[in-house]
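Ticket #4471: structure export looks truncated?
Reporter: QA, pipeline team
Priority: medium

Steps to reproduce: submit the single chain below to the structure queue and open the exported record.
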Amino acid sequence: MDFALDRIYRVIRFLLDKVIGYAAVVVMFLATSLAIFEVLRRYVFGVVYPWGQDAVTYGLVASIFLYFAVTQARRSHLRVSFAIEMLEKAGKFRTVLFIRAFLSAISALLYGSIAWWAWPTIERSIAMERTTQSMVIPIWPFQTALLVTFALMAIVCLFQLYQDVRAMFGKKVFEWAAVEESIEI
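Actual output as written to the record:
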């Protein structure tokens, strides 16, 4: 079973790192380019697209949220690690593993429930033909990006939970995947 899950998780990580991650970067680049173009149009020509500000705002937010799934998979998300570090220094490795597994479970539950409740919201937005404030851009593509993000984060957390639980029993799985990425600030 470990082999099959390893293969599945490798495919998911490939999609996150190479497809979703780069797509988020492209959307952010395009939104930033549009913002710069809009500034030039406003201050040089005195005109703007009525939908430009909405496209920039929703594009940037969607790209940031999509990249959240990539950072979750890399375990490079923002967290307070003071307590974990203190427990590790005190030699409480089993407690650290339990806390890590508990947090992975809670995260999977939270992200999964957000994704679950996002679908009716998207359906309602489509049915009501809801648009952004400029009344040009439909809101459901943005909401779909959020749904995809939270669903991916829930799936990643389930794999991380499996990795954490197996570590509690002394078995290493997904050895290629980081258990914890440390970023010094």
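Status: closed, not a bug. The export was complete when the record was re-opened. Leaving a note from the reviewer for reference: The CA atoms of residues 108 and 145 lie 18 Å apart.
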